[in-house]
Amino acid sequence: SAVISQKPSRDICQRGTSLTIQCQVDSQVTMMFWYRQQPGQSLTLIATANQGSEATYESGFVIDKFPISRPNLTFSTLTVSNMSPEDSSIYLCSVGGQGLNTQYFGPGTRLTVL
Amino acid sequence: QKEVEQNSGPLSVPEGAIASLNCTYSDRVSQSFFWYRQYSGKSPELIMSIYSNGDKEDGRFTAQLNKASQYVSLLIRDSQPSDSATYLCAVNQKSSTLGRLYFGRGTQLTVWP
């Protein structure tokens, strides 16, 4: 398994600002994923981040709005840019890939945009 | 388009009963199947995985897989109020190297005392 931490655990932000969420894993992992989960809804994949390559974004998500970094095999960041109240959600980091039998999730970051 | 379908529920069962959660998937080449449990306000946690047809038991949980019918289920025996959560079905196409998982919308389970 993998132990994942996320920072911050929660934040309240003003419209138009940006927030960077950090995801740290206790071991090297091939694949890292960023999800969004709005209240009462299921998981929505934002993008897949592989070390050494550009992130792959899902339909409806663009790099300008959600830039992602993956500088090494244990760390990734997701930035939510130019935020609006519609971005209020829980953002989850997940890891998977070679050596892991499934995906494991971080504790999430609860974001509220006023 | 890879789709994973679950009954959204809510499913409500009395304590001690068997809760049955169902999931169907559209991609016939899917090879790995998972059930996650998500308590309110928490992140998903893996509770069962199954890779071959048949049943797999782990304590009070039994996962059932039928690849011909593209159907996977989770049975919870002797349901407890602490089992009240949303259960997510997840499917992966690759069996050896885990790629992306495709998640269902989840079934909300309530176990009442």
Question: Would you give an account of this structure?
Answer:
With about 110 residues, chain A is mainly beta. Chain A is about 0% helix and about 50% strand. In chain A, strands 2, 4, 5, 6, 9, 10 and 11 form a seven-stranded mixed sheet that branches. Chain A has a four-stranded antiparallel sheet with strand order 1-3-8-7, with no helix packed on it. Chain A starts with a strand and ends with a strand. The mean pLDDT of chain A is about 90. By secondary structure, chain B is an all-beta fold. Chain B contains no helices and eleven strands. In chain B, strands 2, 4, 5, 9, 10 and 11 form a six-stranded mixed sheet that branches. Chain B has a five-stranded antiparallel sheet with strand order 1-3-8-7-6, with no helix packed on it. The radius of gyration of chain B is 13 Å and the shape is globular. The mean pLDDT of chain B is about 90. Classes of the chains: A mainly beta (about 110), B mainly beta (about 110). Chains A and B meet through β10 of A and β5 and β9 of B.
